[in-house]
């Protein structure tokens, strides 16, 4: 792992910020603390894994506004909202905006740490999925237009005969395309090929081939 | 009056026309001499000079009223009819008598005739002149028996007393007005002894008869005779005095009086008497007290309402230190359990936790002081201190609203006298009003400026300037009326109550739009112990 998952903390109250930092340190979690939402936005590197513990009421940009800004920037860091002011409309808004959880101050430390660990795990899984998808997308990029057509029709469940007839090619030529595809995609068989293709489906190969 | 004189006199109209008034001159003498009345002539002349020179009407008339022997020229002036008309119609004078008085006049004449003597006293009656004016007449007559076959006659005087009557009437009216006035009125001699009290004054002081009061020194009727003496002294020296005094009733009970007294002088400027008018202000005082009580209650209600609105903010204020305490101590426990924490780190965590506990305690303390149902209590106050305290209470609102506060507080500020809680509430209301007004102002421009300073006119001013939506002329007019609000949650009482609190402290409050953006709400209060022109001291005794 290149970077240890970090807890990013935004709270304008110095004491709360300091206490939370100590709590993270007591369980050996790396922590970065900020007093304002802007400060965090200005310094955060989206490639860093972890989660964001965010106070709702902040001077300047509020917690909910930061959440919206992160969504707009396609930063999917899990957000745990902490608030001393847990009214229902605010909780609904936070959850709709994709918050991982919503905790009311003062909270139980174990509960917060549990949620932080869960959030970090989810972030790591997401990043892993994305890394894999990027890898497969890179393999798909190696295919020729014809090979992509063949792959798409295979994923769509068409038989070899149907594909050969539709593309007006011989079975032999089809076999050559197929073996090239298997090689480039590093697939262990047709079933594996379809699994890999489906991982990036929607994101890349199908749309690009129909364009 | 001799018997010789009378017939000559009675016959006079047959030879001379007495009207219009004519002064007997030398040309009369030959005529009189021809009649051989030389003895009487000087007397008649003197008589004519007398009766025709006075304003009274002199007349001689037969007792049956059928013949006028003589009527003096004044008749024309008083009755408005010619003397000639009376000679021709001897009863015509009676026609002029006011219908209501005719009976009385005829009765008097009949009585005099029957008794063959003069009527007993003056007869007062009214006549209506042909020009419509009314005249008051006082008449006196004597019956003169006719001698040597001559007829009995009345001889008399009639005087026009209309002016005197009117004056008397006006005086009587004034007298009645004084007596019946709802204001207690009293006169005293220059040396301070009571000479007159009207009904109201009697009633106010609880006496049944004015004789119980008259002749006694004025000072005896006041709660503090020394103070009353000072008022009298002031009155003698400056001619007038106005103010409030506590009066003492007959039964010893006291009541507040608004007294306005002045010295009455004669034409030479010498004091003739002292006059005082008194109004019992018990009811007004009670109403004022009730109003003050009500206002205090209202202020408390406003405070509770504010409290409710501030509650969520204060809960947050409490949550912050509580969260910090819980987290510090939990972290410390974890470090201890794991055996990984160094003592310095643990010590710092615990110290921080303790400090946060104190912070929470301060919030609770502030909260309790804020809701305390304290009776209005006046003390010397530093408005700067109240501004800072109100800002602490509004801290959450200000932070939540993204408001930047700027202070321009003059130090040291002269103290004002007032109720700490109420005045703090006013400042709090103004701050909250400013924050709410700036809800739609772009975040970077939400500036709140609070300025304090002496005005140079015996007052201290506090101004709260916002950069909010401002004020229209219409809004300024209705701003301080109750239930005027643009806020969905508010009752619209805050500003109305604030203003009534400031007024109860002898000050005033106003608002105006700022030249660039927003509005400024200000109030001014008299400096404690100062000589403000605007205060309303109840007692204006000289110092």
Report on this model:
The complex is a heterodimer of chains A (211) and B (543). By secondary structure, chain A is α/β, with parallel strands linked by helices. Chain A is built from 10 helices and 5 strands. Chain A has helices at residues 14-26, 37-43, 63-72, 88-96, 109-142, 145-155, 160-167, 171-185, 190-199, 205-210; strands spanning 6-10, 31-34, 50-55, 79-83, 101-104. In chain A, strands 2-1-3-4-5 form a 5-stranded parallel sheet, sandwiched between helices. In chain A, helix 3 links the parallel strand 3 and strand 4 (79-83). Chain A is elongated. The longest helix of chain B is centred in the middle third of the chain and has 57 residues, at 282-338. By secondary structure, chain B is an alpha+beta fold. Chain B is built from 17 helices and 17 strands. Chain B has helices spanning 5-15, 28-34, 41-53, 74-79, 83-88, 92-95, 99-115, 162-180, 199-205, 225-238, 282-338, 343-371, 383-393, 395-400, 420-437, 473-478, 494-504, and strands at residues 57-62, 68-71, 123-128, 134-144, 153-160, 184-188, 194-197, 240-248, 254-265, 271-280, 378-381, 404-409, 416-419, 447-454, 459-465, 508-513, 519-526. The interface between A and B is medium-sized, with 22 and 32 residues.
Give the helix/strand layout:
The complex is a heterodimer of chains A (211) and B (543).
Chain A: E1 6-10, H1 14-26, E2 31-34, H2 37-43, E3 50-55, H3 63-72, E4 79-83, H4 88-96, E5 101-104, H5 109-142, H6 145-155, H7 160-167, H8 171-185, H9 190-199, H10 205-210
Parallel strand pairs in A: 1-2, 1-3, 3-4, 4-5
Helix pairs in contact in A: 6-8, 6-9
Chain B: H1 5-15, H2 28-34, H3 41-53, E1 57-62, E2 68-71, H4 74-79, H5 83-88, H6 92-95, H7 99-115, E3 123-128, E4 134-144, E5 153-160, H8 162-180, E6 184-188, E7 194-197, H9 199-205, H10 225-238, E8 240-248, E9 254-265, E10 271-280, H11 282-338, H12 343-371, E11 378-381, H13 383-393, H14 395-400, E12 404-409, E13 416-419, H15 420-437, E14 447-454, E15 459-465, H16 473-478, H17 494-504, E16 508-513, E17 519-526
Parallel strand pairs in B: 12-14
Antiparallel strand pairs in B: 1-2, 1-5, 3-4, 4-5, 6-7, 6-10, 8-9, 9-10, 11-13, 14-15, 15-17, 16-17
Helix pairs in contact in B: 11-12, 11-17, 13-15, 15-17
């Amino acid at each position: 792992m290149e970077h240890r998952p970090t807890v990013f903390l935004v709270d304008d109250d110095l004491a709360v910020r300091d206490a939370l930092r100590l709590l993270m340190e007591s369980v050996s979690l790396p922590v970065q603390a900020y007093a304002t939402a802007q400060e965090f936005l200005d310094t955060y590197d989206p490639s860093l894994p972890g989660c964001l513990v965010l106070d709702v009421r902040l001077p300047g940009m509020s917690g909910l506004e930061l959440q919206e800004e992160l969504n707009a920037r396609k930063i999917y860091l899990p957000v745990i909202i902490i608030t001393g002011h847990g009214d229902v409309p605010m909780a609904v808004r936070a959850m709709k905006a994709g918050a991982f959880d919503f905790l009311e101050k003062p909270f139980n430390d174990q509960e917060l740490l549990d949620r932080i660990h869960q959030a970090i795990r989810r972030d790591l899984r997401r990043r892993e999925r994305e890394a894999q998808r990027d890898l497969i997308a890179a393999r798909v990029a190696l295919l020729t237009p014809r090979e992509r057509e063949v792959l798409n029709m295979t994923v769509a469940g068409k038989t070899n005969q149907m594909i050969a007839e539709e593309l007006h090619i011989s079975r032999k030529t089809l076999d050559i395309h197929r073996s090239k595809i298997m090689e480039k995609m590093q697939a262990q068989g047709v079933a594996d090929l379809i699994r890999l293709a489906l991982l990036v489906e929607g994101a890349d190969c199908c749309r690009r081939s129909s364009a | 009056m001799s018997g010789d004189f009378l017939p000559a006199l009675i016959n006079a109209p047959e030879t001379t026309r007495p009207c219009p008034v004519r002064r007997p001159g030398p040309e009369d003498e030959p005529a009189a001499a021809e009649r051989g009345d030389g003895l009487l002539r000087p007397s008649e002349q003197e008589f004519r000079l007398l009766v025709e020179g006075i304003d009274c009407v002199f007349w001689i008339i037969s007792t049956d009223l059928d013949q006028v022997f003589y009527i003096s020229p004044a008749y024309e002036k008083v009755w408005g009819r010619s003397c000639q008309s009376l000679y021709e119609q001897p009863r015509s004078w009676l026609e002029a008598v006011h219908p209501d008085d005719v009976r009385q006049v005829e009765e008097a004449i009949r009585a005099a005739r029957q008794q063959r003597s003069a009527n007993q006293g003056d007869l007062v009656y009214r006549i209506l002149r042909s020009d419509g004016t009314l005249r008051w007449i006082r008449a006196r007559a004597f019956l003169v028996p006719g001698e040597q076959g001559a007829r009995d006659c009345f001889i008399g005087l009639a005087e026009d007393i209309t002016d005197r009557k009117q004056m008397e009437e006006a005086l009587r009216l004034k007298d009645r007005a004084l007596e019946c006035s709802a204001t207690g009125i009293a006169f005293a001699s220059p040396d301070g002894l009571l000479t007159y009290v009207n009904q109201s004054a009697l009633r106010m002081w609880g006496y049944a008869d004015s004789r119980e009061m008259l002749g006694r020194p004025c000072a005896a009727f006041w709660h503090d005779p020394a103070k009353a003496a000072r008022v009298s002294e002031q009155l003698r020296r400056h001619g007038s005095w106005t103010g409030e005094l506590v009066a003492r009733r007959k039964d010893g009970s006291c009541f507040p009086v608004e007294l306005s007294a002045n010295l009455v002088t004669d034409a030479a400027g010498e004091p003739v008497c002292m006059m005082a008018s008194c109004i019992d202000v018990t009811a007004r005082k009670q109403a004022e007290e009730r109003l003050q009580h009500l206002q205090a209650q209202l202020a408390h209600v406003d405070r509770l309402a504010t409290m409710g609105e501030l509650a969520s903010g204060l809960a947050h204020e409490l949550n912050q230190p509580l969260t910090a305490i819980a987290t510090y101590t939990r972290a410390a426990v974890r470090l201890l359990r794991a055996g990984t924490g160094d003592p310095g780190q643990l010590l710092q965590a615990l110290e921080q936790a303790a400090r946060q506990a104190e912070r929470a305690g301060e919030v609770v303390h502030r909260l309790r002081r804020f809701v305390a149902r304290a009776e209005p209590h006046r003390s010397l106050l530093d408005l700067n201190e109240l501004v800072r305290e109100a800002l602490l209470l509004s801290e959450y609102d200000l932070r939540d609203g993204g408001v930047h506060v700027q202070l321009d507080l003059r130090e040291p500020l002269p103290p004002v006298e007032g109720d700490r809680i109420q005045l703090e509430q006013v400042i709090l209301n103004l701050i909250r009003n400013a924050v709410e007004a700036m809800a739609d102002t772009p975040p970077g421009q939400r500036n709140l400026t609070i300025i304090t300073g002496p005005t140079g006119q015996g007052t201290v001013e506090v101004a709260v300037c916002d950069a909010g939506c401002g004020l229209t002329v219409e809004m300024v007019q209705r701003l301080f009326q109750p239930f005027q609000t643009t806020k969905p949650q508010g009752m619209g009482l805050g500003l109305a109550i604030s203003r009534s609190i400031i007024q109860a402290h002898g000050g005033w409050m106003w608002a105006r739009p700022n030249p660039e953006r927003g509005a400024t709400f200000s109030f001014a209060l008299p400096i404690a112990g100062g000589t403000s022109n605007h205060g309303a001291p109840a007692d204006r005794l000289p110092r």
